[in-house]
Design brief:
about 75% helix; single chain; about 160 residues
Length: about 160
Amino acid sequence: MNEFNTLERKAGVLTIQGMQQTTIHTGMFMQALAAHQAGNDKLVNFYVERFPPELRKAYDAWLAQKPFENPNADPHPFVSKLYMTPGTREAAEATAKGAINQKEAGVAGSISGQYLANTVLFAAVLFFANAASRFKQRRVRVVSFAFAVAVFLFAVVRTAMLPLS
């Protein structure tokens, strides 16, 4: 369960970092777009040369669609088919691994709960077996001892059905 929590926190941090990087990338793109609209090709090249690889790839794919002439082109390079938010893949992997760990922790918790319940049943057996000897009436002693034996057999069967590891 601790590993699940660690992976969930890691996925959250990666997502936040990716969003922060995307915000920076968007700002760079907007500056390049403003320079393009102003007709300042030197400034456009200045920004484009400084684009990180993932943004540059998306930008080049977007430009290949001829967005300034083609009305059917994607509105910007940040659409999912062109641009992937940094850390998205790693965050998804951490989340998937965390889900597996959470499931395993749930199974382990269930099994440990069953072992604990069996321990309580065995303690009840000891109680009723000891109490049987203290009753004065034979019938009450026999019923109490028979109940202890029945609970013992039930607990043994439950324990035998549990996995060993």
